[in-house]
Amino acid sequence: MPSPRPEIAGLSSCYHGGPNYAEFERLGLKPGDVLDFSSNSNPYPFKLEFTLEDIIIDHYPDSDSTELRRIIGTQNGITAENVIVGSGSMEIIRLVAQAYFNKGDRVLVLKPTFGEYEQSCLISGAEVVELWSEEKCDFRFDVDRCVKLIQVLKPKAVFICNPDNPTGQYLARPQLEAILRAANACLVILDEAYIAFTEDAWRSIDLISNSNLIIVRSMTKDFALAGLRLGYGLAHPTIIRNLFKVKPPWNVNVVAQHAGCQALSAGAYIKRSDRLIRQNRNYLITEFNSLGFNVIPTRTNFFLMKVGDAKEFRSSLMKKGVIVRDCTSFGLPEYVRIAPRTLPECKRLVANVKALR
């Protein structure tokens, strides 16, 4: 058999911790009966007002997602030339690595965080340098340390998840601007997958005039469209043109494009979801604090909770048809991450945790 590239031969798959249908079957559970608190998506389904009969599916989709890019640009006060659409925000991350990273490049990743940043770097042969936040500071990033490391390391790129997954911590605008000033010779990838449900979020779009910044966002999280896979990137037109050079043709199917155009007109839906999610999150935090758990303060629609043995905690709940995210793969084996669902479902989670205690 021919051998793959050395970077691929030694590569392990990136663990994501979502629903495992083989695990459901082994436990005798039906997927529809399992409550999933492990996925940081909107738990309130968005109602799509079309059917397959309304869409032309016997032709290729628009390879450039022109209409969707135009709507995204208009809503953000920029042009379609500042926008690229992908099959989930993860595709945008992979395109960035494919377009910009060479073997031996050093890339700084602020951790703990989403594992796909590192995975994309390793696929490209880039070297990952980790900068970890500390538990004693509730996992808030030390921006001064970050700036100094960038000045010494001079990396090809910096990955920042803001708000961070899984910690829920959020950098203020002056903090990010300090990082951008230090990183003026490298690419800064700002992942805002959870920005729609972030308290006191500031407008990062104003910073994309800096030619080294790309903002990545997920419509999956906002509109509960995980099965359609939809995300986008916002950047200076030069960066967007480079990403288009490596983007596969027809990367976003026609159903996803149509759904995205419709979803972006539903501002009232997002506001209502944000209000309900925040109420349900606060309910869970109050309940778990009263049970003696250490819950890390958060600015978004999920939170970290210290449980001791995260793997065992998840396994015990799984047997009851409830999933939380074991954060061992993030380097946090004592923590689980929980994203609120509807209030009745949150009450069921609390009842199950009380039964375990």
What attributes characterize this protein structure?
Aspartate Aminotransferase, domain 1; four-stranded antiparallel sheet; seven-stranded mixed sheet; Aspartate Aminotransferase, domain 2; alpha/beta; about 350 residues; 13 helices
Ordered list of secondary-structure elements with their pairings:
Elements: H1 6-9, H2 21-26, E1 35-36, H3 66-76, E2 83-86, H4 89-100, E3 106-111, H5 116-124, E4 127-132, H6 143-153, E5 157-161, H7 173-182, E6 187-191, E7 213-218, H8 219-223, E8 231-235, H9 237-246, H10 254-263, H11 267-290, E9 294-295, E10 303-306, H12 310-318, E11 322-323, E12 325-326, E13 335-338, H13 343-356
Parallel strand pairs: 1-11, 3-4, 3-5, 5-6, 6-7
Antiparallel strand pairs: 2-8, 7-8, 9-10, 10-13, 12-13
Give the structure's gist in a few sentences.
This protein has 13 helices and 13 strands. By secondary structure, it is α/β, with parallel strands linked by helices. The chain has 2 domains: 6-45 and 267-356, Aspartate Aminotransferase, domain 1; 53-263, Type I PLP-dependent aspartate aminotransferase-like (Major domain) (Aspartate Aminotransferase, domain 2), CATH 3.40.640.
